[in-house]
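Trying the structure run again after the queue cleared.
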Amino acid sequence: MDIPVMARLSEAGLSDANRVDRESSCWTEEAFQGFFLENYARLVGVIFRIVGDYPRAEGLTDEAFWRLYRQPCGGNKFNPSGWIYRTASRLAIDSLRAEARRGRIEQEAGPLLSAGPRPDPLDAVLEAERCAQVRNALAFLRPLQAQLLILRASGFSYQELAETLKVKAGSVGTRLIRAEAAFRKSYLKLYGK
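Done. C-alpha cells:
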C-alpha cells in the first residue's frame, strides 16, 4: 500500500519502473512524507518562478522528490533541503534550455507551425513577453547564478541560499551581485532594453 505522497508522485506520471525497493531508500515512509509535505508547496513556487507554468512546475518538483527518494544515503553531511532545491532548480533550468531549443527550431519552421491563439488583452501579452524574456535571459546564466537569483526572488535569506547551494554564507552577497550583473548583461544582449 502506497503512502499518500508516493501515490501522488505515482499519479504524476512516474512509472512503476521508477519505484525503488523501500529497503534501499534512506527514508522511512513517515520521514519522507513529512519532508515532502514541509517542502513541496514552497519548492513548487520556486520552480514556478523559473518555468512560469504551474503544472510543469509540479511535474519538475515531483521528479526532484523521486530523485531524492532514490538517492543513496549521503551520510551526516547530506542536506536534503539543499539537495532538493538545487536538483529541482537544475531540472527547471534544463527544461527551459530544452524549451529554448524547441523554440528556435519552431521559429525556423516558421509558418508551418501554428503559434496558437494569443490572449486578447494587451497587458496579458506584454506580461507574458516580459516573463519569457526574463526566463530566456536566465537560461544563458551559469546554473548557480540562475539559482541564486530565483531563490532570492522567492524569499530565501542569505543563510538559506548558502545552505541550499552549498556556498559560504559570506560569499552569497558577492555572488548575488555578480549574478545580477550577469543577468543584466544577458538581458541587454538579448533584448537591448
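The longest helix spans residues 80-109. Worth checking whether this holds up in the mutant runs.
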